């Protein structure tokens, strides 16, 4: 697979900061780029803010690149076209095993975990005027937007909907574009998989009345038995439109690095991220769970040696056989 193929839909946006610290960076790259996802989604907001923060900490220029999301980020980081990215555990496992639809048969095993980010809840948004108040209300043939092609939502949500007996027409696009289409009546439902609060949902509920739909206990049981997800509660305070907590399912996200990135660089990045959660939360509220205690949620990717060094120094044991060598 060529870089041109992988990057066909990508557009770069760069966030640059002035040097903030002096140290030996002789083996570091001159700059770095973080693979995120589409605008209007949490990955882009989180990744852009983190890239800017790392630029300040490391004293080198860094940027965030719009991509197709976790699957594409795994491919780009594996090949070294991007040094860093964000991914979800489900797509990470499929990519590691050579089952990525972007590069069938390619085992993307040069991708290493850096630190835990947050859980990605799978939730549904409709216009209140649609009369759709639950998954069972979705009419046969409804058009559902599943986010960018190859994203976590696009990879898993259609399968979940089929498992729950929903008959639908599939639509892909950026979260912001799908939000506009929902508001204009061009699609019926958006099936979001993104950290909360999702920027596109927050924008939608300011402009119109929306229903944010959860899952029943029976639906959650059915989905958790078949997919690598767990039950998750979206607090009522997350959105103006929620009157009570919403029960859904979720999947963990981790920041990733090409395993060949210098250990000292990754160590400094992980140190700054894990030791300054207030700063991370100021970037995005989803970062409340970007804390070292959640390191054990990675059961898929090998750890980058630089990341493992920080965790082990701070009492979070990562065994040697879980570290890339």
What can you tell me about this protein's structure?
This is TRAP transporter solute receptor, TAXI family. InterPro entries: TRAP_TAXI. Keywords: Signal. Residues 1-22 form the signal peptide. Pfam families: NMT1_3. This protein is of the alpha/beta class and 325 residues long. The chain folds into two domains: 3-119 and 253-322, Periplasmic binding protein-like II (D-Maltodextrin-Binding Protein, domain 2); 120-250, Periplasmic binding protein-like II (D-Maltodextrin-Binding Protein, domain 2). Helices cover 33% and strands 22% of the residues. It has eleven helices and eleven strands. The chain has helices spanning 3-6, 42-58, 70-79, 89-96, 152-163, 175-183, 199-207, 217-226, 263-274, 277-283, 305-313, and strands at 11-15, 31-35, 61-66, 84-88, 111-127, 142-145, 168-171, 189-193, 210-213, 230-234, 246-258. Strands 1, 2, 3, 4, 5, 6, 7, 8, 9, 10 and 11 form an eleven-stranded mixed β-sheet that branches. Helix 5 links the parallel strand 6 and strand 7 (168-171). Helix 2 (42-58) crosses helix 9 (263-274), helix 6 packs parallel to helix 7 and helix 9 (263-274) crosses helix 11. The longest helix has 17 residues, at 42-58. The protein starts with a helix and ends in a 12-residue tail after the last helix. The model is unreliable at 1-21 (pLDDT under 50).
